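Entry:
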Amino acid sequence: MLQPGPLNLITDVPGLKVGHVTDERVRSGVTVLRPDKVWRASVDVRGGGPGGRELAALEPENMIGELHALVLAGGSVFGLAAADGVAVALSQENVGVRVQPWTPAIPVVPSAVLHDLANHGDKDWGLEPPYRQWGIEALAAASERFAIGAVGAGRGALAGTRRGGLGSASLGLGDGLWVGALVAVNPVGSVYMADGRSFWAWPWEIDGEFGGRRPDGTLGHRDPVPQLSRLESLGRLQAGANTTLAVVACNADLSTAECKRLAIMAQDGIARAIRPAHLPFDGDTVFAMASGARVLEQGARRPVALSIVGSAAADCLARAIARGVYAAEDHATPNT
């Protein structure tokens, strides 16, 4: 049986670090993923109300197809400024693309944001939202070890009508090949089955990593969109008011097009762990990153190898969703 890495975090993929800023007054935050060099990457968007930056730069038909850092943030459109801070800080380190030797380095820093503006945190920031500075601080805090739960981009998140959060998980595939996932969980749908305590992702749990809860076997069919009236009262049935933001990473030598396929396959992890998913109101976005350190099989066998990595990525993402919410459950509710 495949097992998680020593940290059971996305940073079990060698060369990757993650940093958070969490602000309890604003009830929001920023999470930055920093690779050790430029990594190949792509993105797949399945939700109907996404919010992001530089997503087109990661499409296989375009020129870039790689990144120097990746940012997830709360704050809706205001959170996009976090990537500005990361880009400036990296440029000061001479990290990025140079058009000419004398021009500043231009980092490629894609970003995606979630809506947490209605959680009664202090959003009275006038003309100076804090996200740009938080991006700089989260980049500086990047480490192989990081917290999960109500932290970083997941601080103000809701999963349906319950506490959301930020989760991560990893899986070793053998021969030095690693896959990991990180996710900020803020969907319309629920991560819980009809009993309100066992996770939809329970079949993929490893070693009780999100509580070892099992459904009792007598559960009936739950409502397609649970607690509809409560969601409406929270203003969540609007495009852009909800999302699941995810990153899957591996150390395989993937092309940008192969990263795109990895992101597409990993979306199944959202569908396994959240019911329903990919709604018109969600902004479900999955990034895929690859360091290139491990060479996959070539020729006719390469699609098979990519399929194995993609399947593991979907499993990691389902587990990361449940782990993030489970870790956030004992935190104070976001509306108090």
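The chain has one domain: 10-328.
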